[in-house]
Amino acid sequence: MRRIRRVRERIVVHPIMTFVVLILGTILLSGLLNWFNVNSYYSTLGPKGYEPIFVSVESLLNVGGIKFIFSNTVANFATFTPLTMLLIVLIGIGIMDKSGFLDAFFYVVTNRISKRAVTFTLSLICILASIVGDLSFIVLIPLAALLFKYGKRNPKAGIVCAFASLACGIGINILMNSVDASLLEFTLQGAKLLTTEYTINIYANSFIMFVTAVALASIIASVTEKSIIPQLGRFELENDDEEITLTKRQKRALIVAVLCGIAYILIFVYNIIPGLPFSGNLLDNSQIYYIDKLFGYNSFFNQGFVFIVTVFCIILGLSYGLMVKNIKNHRDFCACLSHSLDGVGKVIVLILLASMFIFIFKQTNIGPVLVASFANVINNSGFTGVPLILLVFLLSAVATIFVPGSANKWIILSGVVVPVFMNAGMSPEFATVVFRAGECVTYALTPVMAYFVIYIAFMELYSGEDSDTIFGNMRYLLPYAGYTLILWLIILLAFYIIGIPLGISALPTL
Questions:
Q1: Residue 98 and residue 338 in contact, taking contact as beta carbons nearer than 8 Å
Q2: pLDDT per residue over 243-285, tens digit each?
Q3: What was the pLDDT predicted at 45?
Q4: DSSP string covering 70-111, please?
Q5: How high is the pLDDT of residue 47?
Q6: Position 197 confidence tier, pLDDT thresholds 50, 70, 90
Q7: Domain-located, residue 403
């Protein structure tokens, strides 16, 4: 056994070293592609209408590139959003965990519900949480781990399930979020190349999104229960064989904590409802769409949502801890606040290397050049109908590996995809849905996505000494990506061929 362990340690490359290799490989690749003068172009709306924008690969394999990396790495790491949000959220989760609130709450939630129902509910919540954008990765992944842990199941399965649901459901929004609002503007610009008076209802895709959300949650729950949990095996917990029961004090404390949390939520909900007396104080009223008022770039919730969630967690954990006497004084409270930050040194190093890789990769322009090339392929394909749907779907999936950001891709593709779809008799709304569907397939599989490192970091936290590689952790996500691809193809083709409405006032065809 010791010999097998030593052989495995020599074979398994730690995620930190994998990011080092990716960084060096990206620098070398940028130099090679720049030497071959790899470039492309796309059209975007400018002051004089649609204008060509030329993009080329920028080499970092030179003195200027190396100076750029050394000069900007510290500033980039300090402003790397996943790191700052993770540390703040862990403070709130720490007090909920240490005070015993999560143990009691998850016991009540899961005690009389089947494990499959718990997994399905977690998956559906994660898919619907896309309305708040990428912030959901920071909040739901650690909570999913604890949900499975206190349910006496491997917490890594909860991490895999939550991340797969969040990533594969990234393009599934029953209600429009801030990303959809940005995409809508580019879609309208593309449509107006052919029809200047074209309009799109903000609920245009609600029907197809609802169907896909429920179907995808069911599939993810099934894959998790039948494939991932058996692969990961049993997770040993302290006092694992003890039967958990709640005392009367714990039950009262749980009720009080939940009531305090509800009161906190109601205060914020009232302040995001426009039109009521003294309400709407937390909205950005400079925006047009309500979702932008709520989650726009300069909105209160976009800038303060993580801290809002952290305070909510602190209220729940503190009120419960005081009631059951797990928190007796300020020293106990301070110990709870730092509980989840114990042992995160390796995670911080991992996030540092991931932020460097993402920063360097974006600077090379490899992604935009590739996406612009895809736009030209679509424009020159001459495809219509089902072949066009399949082409855009697959190219969107491939493009997402290199450019995860939806708006960054759609600003390049929309000026081509939307007119091509309209000339083929298909609606701009359907073009956007096909584009978003392709994103769902590969969003979980790209290390260029900023929140991918959060998945890897939490898998590391619960791996102990049996650390796995980045690609080893990625293999758990492959079944989800495969089933997401099949599901979306079935739904897209069914809606198109049958002519089912995508949403309110929207059909796949014109």
A1: no
A2: 567 888 888 999 999 999 999 989 888 888 887 787 777 777 7
A3: 65
A4: HHHHHHHHHT-HHHHHHHHHHHHHHHHHHTTHHHHHHHHHHT
A5: 58
A6: confident
A7: yes
Q: Helical H runs in 298-341?
A: 300-324, 330-337
Distance, CA of 136 to chain centre: 7
* 508: in domain: no
User: In the chain, how many domains are there?
Assistant: 1
In a domain, residue 125? The reply is: yes
Cβ–Cβ under 8 Å, residues 253 and 327: no
Calculate mean pLDDT across residues 45-71. Answer: 84
Within 10 angstroms of residue 484's Cβ, the number of other Cβ atoms is: 27
Q: What mean pLDDT comes out for the span 333-339?
A: 80
Give dist(CA 380, CA 201) in Å, integer: 30
| Residue 236, pLDDT above cutoff 80 | no
Q: What 3 state SS string does 14-67 have?
A: CHHHHHHHHHHHHHHHHHHHHHCCCEEEEEEEECCEEEEEEEECCCCCCHHHHH
- Interval 393-424: pLDDT, tens: 999 999 999 999 999 999 999 989 999 999 99
Interior angle at CA 374, CA 411 and CA 359, nearest 5: 60
Are 16 and 353 within 8 A, CB to CB? yes
Q: Assess contact for 430 and 206: CB atoms under 8 A.
A: no
Q: Is 327 helix (H, G, I), strand (E, B) or coil?
A: coil
Helix axes 135-150, 300-324, angle to 10 degrees: 20
Q: Answer yes or no: are the C-beta atoms of 24 and 38 closer than 8 Å.
A: no
Cα(382)–Cα(188) distance, integer angstroms: 22
Q: Which of 41-45, 124-128, 193-197, 389-393 has the lowest mean pLDDT?
A: 41-45
Tokens of 152: 């006496």
Q: Domain range for residue 453?
A: 7-498
Kindly state whether residue 2 falls inside one of the protein's structural domains: no
Polymer length in residues for the chain: 510
For 414, the enclosing helix (H) or strand (E) is: helix 406-423
Task: Tell me, rounded to whole angstroms, the distance of Cα 297 from its chain centroid.
Answer: 17
Nearest CA to 141 out of 158, 120, 154, 128 is that of 158
- State yes or no: pLDDT of 26 exceeds 90: yes
Alpha-carbon distances of 87 from 80, 133, 339, 345, 430, rounded to whole Å: 12, 18, 11, 11, 39
Mean pLDDT of 214-226: 96
- Show Cβ contacts of residue 118 under 8 Å, excluding neighbours closer than 6 positions: 109, 110, 147, 151
* The amino acid at 360: I
DSSP assigned state of 340: G
State the Cα–Cα distance between residues 298 and 283, nearest whole angstrom.
10
* Alpha carbon separation from 44 to 53, 206, 407 (Å, rounded): 7, 28, 13
